[in-house]
Design brief:
Blueprint (H helix, E strand, L loop, with lengths): L1 H22 L9 H12 L3 E3 L6 E6 L2 H13 L6 E6 L10 E4 L7 H8 L6 E4 L11 E6 L2 E6 L1 H6 L2 E3 L1 H6 L2 E2 L1
Parallel strand pairs: 2-3, 2-4, 4-5, 5-6, 7-9
Antiparallel strand pairs: 1-8, 6-7
Helix pairs in contact: 1-2, 2-3
Length: 177
């Protein structure tokens, strides 16, 4: 039952964000995997607690400007632009200001360097759609199964970093380490 309620919350949130886009005159890309990933990234912040959280959380994106643009669109259309700050980064960037760092599949070759650079920063949740990301010292991975985006969580690593994931999010994850 609890799983159903969490899933329902995610669906309502996603539908709300899609309806906001419609209200603004944009076509909601309901079957666009990148748009769904962007919605997940926005919603993840509601299920994760950081030891030293600031007022505005920062979601940083490496390697996929289209996803960054979708994140900006979602936050602006849903009124979250004050609560979430979206930043585009590259390999030479510093990541200390990021709370959530999305590493796109297009940045896979730089992924190990990025994960190494972020390993000393306890407050960064790394997210990616790279295959087996949670087995490569990443914290949350997106996987596509039957045209549906699911998440995998490396909760052991998150706990080591002092980052706490709500049990409801752990319940809907496809895999938890």
């Amino acid at each position: 039952m609890k799983y159903f309620l969490v899933l329902l919350f995610f669906c309502i949130t996603i539908l709300h964000n899609v309806s906001v886009c419609v209200a603004e005159g944009d076509k909601p890309p309901s079957h666009d995997p990148e748009y769904i990933k962007a919605l997940y990234l926005v919603n993840l912040s509601q299920f994760i607690s950081w030891e030293n959280s600031e007022d505005a959380l920062k979601i940083c994106v490496v390697g996929d400007d289209a996803l960054g643009a979708k994140l900006v669109q979602i936050t602006e259309n849903s009124g979250l632009s004050g609560a979430l700050n979206i930043q585009s980064k590259n390999l030479s960037s510093t990541f200390d200001s990021c709370n959530i760092l999305y590493i796109s599949e297009t940045a896979e070759f730089e992924m190990q360097q990025i994960l190494y650079k972020t390993s000393s920063h306890r407050s960064i949740v790394t997210v990616s759609d790279v295959k087996d990301f949670i087995y490569q010292k990443g914290t949350i991975g997106f996987v596509s199964i039957d045209n549906t985006i699911k998440i995998e969580i490396n909760n052991s690593l998150l706990k080591e970093k002092g980052i706490f994931v709500n049990s409801e999010l752990l319940e809907i994850a496809r895999r938890v380490l």
